[in-house]
Amino acid sequence: MKLIVDCTGEGVVFVEAEADCKLEDLGDMMEPDPIALGKLVYNIPGTKNILEIPPVTAKVTKFKCGGFALGLCANHCMFDGVGAMEFVNSWGETARGLPLKVNPFMDRKILEARNPPKPNFPHHEFIEIEDTSNAGELYNEKMLYRSFCFDQKKLQDLREKALEDGTLSAFVWKAHSKGLDLKPDQKTEILFAVDGRNRFDPPIPKGYFGNAIVLTNSICSAGDLLENPLSSNVKLVLEAVNMVTDSYMRSAIDYFEVTRARLSLTSTLLLTTWSQLSFHTTDFGWGEPILSGPVALPDKEAILFLPHGKDRKSINVFLGLPASAMMKFELYMKFDGNEE
């Protein structure tokens, strides 16, 4: 089944709400709280499947201090992070009566499968990993949500240890496997999305409104991941990123066309980064927001890298884990410069 939006002109579901408190009463909104922040978005109650859920809903909550929150809930089939960012910023430009800086490019046929499809790469991102450590049972516990800030000094210390970009991803992958107490022979995977816009040949037109991301991954045993020096694990991450070429992405499109495969997230760290998404520049006429970010994680196995600070050069690592795993993960995340 392929999803197609029927543009009937009915518009987006728009909800207005008022909160009996000030914005400052919400406390530190950088600390993840999916339950509290979830009240700022609108999910239609009673929906049973994707066809009953609107592609996009918007909710504006007014606070007693005069501030407001805009909560968007969108189906990922509509657009990826870059598409969502351009949509929201264009909305702000329209609200201020300005011409659009980026006009939407709506032709999704440019990313259609070839005819006939020719998947010519192995796509291990769809491999089913056996849970020999029974880590899945941990997710029956209470989930805890935390964020960990890596300022510029911590990031530099990590890079100096591994001498490569991608070091934070490798460090978190290792800590995640330690937190879940994976057995040495347990296969573990890091899975992450790469923006393909400038990796396709020719590049995807600016303003492409859809999904132009491709998933790439690296798999190794938990024993190797934990015993290897950080630099070795960084190489695994970089190899996965560098694998994403035009040929690989075309193969991935064709592979999905043929198989309709679903991702398995067993023993997997699903990493998403928002560091290049400029939601912080959106302006509806009252100035830029004091905070922007996700309300919740897309999956329980997901970890988000969020830009932090006015200069956006620090990174907040936001995730949820079963309570027992989170306590171990927190210990391993206390990087002191001696990580090997």
TrEMBL record:
Q: Which InterPro entries match?
A: CAT-like_dom_sf, Plant_Fungal_Acyltransferase
Q: Which UniProt keywords apply?
A: Transferase
Coiled coil: which residue ranges?
Answer: none
Keyword Transferase annotated = yes
Which terms in the Gene Ontology molecular function aspect does this entry carry?
A: acyltransferase activity, transferring groups other than amino-acyl groups
Pfam families linked to this entry? Transferase (PF02458)
Q: Which family does it belong to?
A: Belongs to the plant acyltransferase family.
- Which PANTHER family does this UniProt record tie to the protein? FATTY ALCOHOL:CAFFEOYL-COA ACYLTRANSFERASE (PTHR31642:SF310), TRICHOTHECENE 3-O-ACETYLTRANSFERASE (PTHR31642)
Protein name from the UniProt record: Omega-hydroxypalmitate O-feruloyl transferase-like
* Species this protein is from: Olea europaea subsp. europaea
